[in-house]
From TrEMBL:
Transmembrane regions: none
Keyword ATP-binding among UniProt keywords: yes
Organism: Oppiella nova
Top-level taxon of the source organism: Eukaryota
Name of the protein in its database record: acetate--CoA ligase
């Protein structure tokens, strides 16, 4: 902890020196004018953040060529496992660079230039990484959309980001669910055309091992894909003709690297823009320290590459450190709940990164799926995070800030709370990878993150800090409930109830109450072997009362087999609130992982009441 304290103090008191040291291992051209320059005060002018302004770099060069030059060319970059067990491939750094260069040349041959935006709609695969890095090599901006989003959701993102090209696969399976990716992409293109937005080309990877002549068989009719010779291009045909070297384009450090859309569980998706130099340095640094990475480690993150965790942990942060990464296309529970542990054993994974949602989902299958032996399980976050072997942890706490991160807790008037306390989480100064803007809408960016309290970047989270300076994220500002005039955090109520041995997952929302104003409506997923009884309800209520107080006792308990979640694993509280209120007008549910749960939620609602 002493070394952490020294490094943290330097990172916040002299960030220019600290981040210059972190950047020394990476290749930049020309000297920067300043390491970190920013304005967080909307009253003084537009919000802006500049990192190493004036310097040029290329992320693809730094995470591939640079590592190959260090002797890692034959080091495995990826072990890829398909949807079904034992459908495995691997690729080393040398061959990955070769494929990336070929794809970059494909893009150039189709007229793609620096600054063009390309949408990628593919399952977790080596080709998805290839497409991302091919864009980065020539200065094109990629936006990855989770494979399986609806055509409408895909079209919205294509239009919003002004994408000029789409990259997809013919089709895929996610668990047992068939996803006609090309068909969805075709419909998205049609929707874009109707609104006046067209794309140059759609590159299609042949993903499923299917005999295409069998498609004429009636039994394979669901596998049929349409082909537009004016737009569609086979990936393999284009790659066969491409040269295997492409010189990197040296870009300003603030050049956009990618756009990534929020999941949309809380409303209109936002296209978040990440920069080139700052994102590269910060993700490399967090990967190194948060996962305690050393040479020879095999890293496995369960997040899909369509989300920021997948981008950071499994691509840019990992490759920047020369890591070997396990990439799983399917779900953690297909075909069996022990899929993750089988992969960990087979591929000798020693750093495993997953979400609490995955662990909670496994709990309902029994303890045997939660106790892999001899494995190091880690979870980290880039802003508030423990460092392995360094930070003592406390249950439920995000612990302490990472290097360069200066958190603050604000009261409702925007005044900073010193010492222990609870309030809104904010940050006083930027770190290199902080979000730069929202695509095409800088005013919304300023309004969302900076307008409420000038001089602070506000996240919308409620946080608690103890006497040791440890932080607990207790919920979103809009997840706070007013029950009989008292404000309650849904996360605190959920934490109390989830402590019962029978509970696998829990989610709490509010529903109108004629006397209290609002009351707590609790959705509960039980572990296998437990029954929902009046006795259990009594025990769960006592859990809430004992930990928080009588006001935190849910009025309604609703047993369900699963919770509705986005494809990134976030619980869709908006949907649960609709169910609690009996409102079947759910709005856009294209981000939902498994829509079948909706019927169960409404069908069992009367029982819960």
């Amino acid at each position: 902890m002493e070394k952490y304290g020294q490094m943290y103090k330097k990172s916040i008191n002299d960030p220019a020196s600290y981040w210059s040291d972190m950047a020394k291992d990476f290749v930049f051209k020309y000297s920067e004018q300043s390491v970190l320059k920013f304005n967080f005060d909307i009253l003084k002018g537009p919000i802006s953040i500049k990192f190493m302004e004036g310097a040029l770099t290329n992320v693809c060069y730094n995470i591939l060529d640079r590592n190959i030059n260090k002797g890692l060319g034959h080091h495995i970059a990826y072990y890829w496992e398909g949807n079904e067990p034992n459908t495995r491939r691997q690729i080393n750094y040398h061959n990955l660079l070769r494929e990336v260069c070929k794809f970059a040349n494909v893009l150039k041959s189709l007229g793609i230039q620096m600054g063009d935006t390309i949408v990628i709609y593919m399952p977790n695969s080596i080709e998805l990484v290839t497409a991302m890095l091919g864009c980065a090599r020539i200065g094109a901006i990629h936006t990855v959309v989770f494979a399986g989003f609806s055509a409408e959701a895909l079209a919205d993102r294509i239009r919003d980001a002004n994408c000029v090209m789409l990259i997809t696969c013919d089709r895929a399976y996610r668990g047992t669910k068939f996803i006609p990716l090309k068909g969805i992409a075709d419909l998205a293109i049609t929707l874009c055309n109707k609104s006046g937005h067209s794309i140059k080309a759609c590159i299609v990877k042949r993903h499923l091992e299917i005999n295409y002549q069998d498609e004429m068989n009636d039994n394979c009719s669901h596998l049929l894909i349409k082909w537009d010779r004016m737009v569609d291009i086979w990936w393999h045909e284009a790659m066969e003709m491409a040269d295997d070297y492409c010189a990197p384009v040296w870009l300003d450090t603030e050049h956009p690297l990618f756009i990534l859309y929020t999941s949309g569980s809380t409303g209109q998706p936002k296209g978040v823009v990440h920069s080139t130099g700052g994102y590269m340095i910060y993700t490399a640094t967090t990967f190194k320290y948060v996962f305690n990475h050393t040479d020879g480690d095999v890293f496995f993150c369960t997040a899909d590459l369509g989300w920021i965790t997948g981008h950071t942990a499994s691509v840019y942060g990992a490759l920047a450190n020369g890591a070997t990464v396990v990439l799983l296309e399917g779900t953690p529970f297909h075909p069996n709940p022990d899929r993750l542990w089988q992969l960990i054993d087979d591929l000798r994974v020693n750093t495993f990164y997953t979400a609490p949602t995955v662990i909670r989902s496994l709990m309902k299958f029994g303890d045997k799926y939660l106790t892999p032996t001899g494995k190091q399980k880690q979870q980290g976050a880039p802003m508030l995070t423990p460092l392995p072997g360094c930070t003592p942890i406390k249950p439920g706490s995000a612990t302490l800030p990472f290097f360069g991160v200066v958190p603050a807790i604000l009261n409702k008037h925007g005044q900073e709370i010193i010492g222990p306390g609870t309030g809104q989480l904010a940050f006083k100064q930027p770190w290199p990878s902080i979000v730069r803007t929202l695509i095409g809408n800088h005013q919304r960016y300023e309004r969302t993150y900076f307008s409420k309290f000038p001089n602070y970047f506000q996240t919308g989270d409620v946080v608690r800090r103890d006497t040791d300076g440890y932080y607990w994220i207790t919920g979103r500002c809009d997840d706070t409930l007013n029950v009989s005039g008292h404000l309650l955090s849904t996360v605190e109520v959920e934490s109390a109830i989830s402590g019962h041995k029978a509970v696998a997952e829990v989610a709490v929302v509010s529903t109108p109450h004629p006397i209290k104003g609002e009351c707590l409506y609790c959705f509960v997923v039980l572990k296998n072997g437990h029954q929902f009884t009046n006795e259990l309800i009594h025990e769960l209520k006592n859990k809430a009362r004992a930990k928080i107080g009588g006001l935190a006792t849910p009025d309604i308990f609703h047993p369900v087999s699963m919770l509705p979640k986005t494809r990134s694993g976030k619980i869709m509280r908006r949907i649960l609130a609709k169910v609690a209120q009996g409102d079947s007008q759910l709005g856009d549910i294209s981000t939902m992982a498994d829509e079948i749960i909706i019927d169960e939620l409404f069908a069992t609602r009367q029982f819960a009441l």
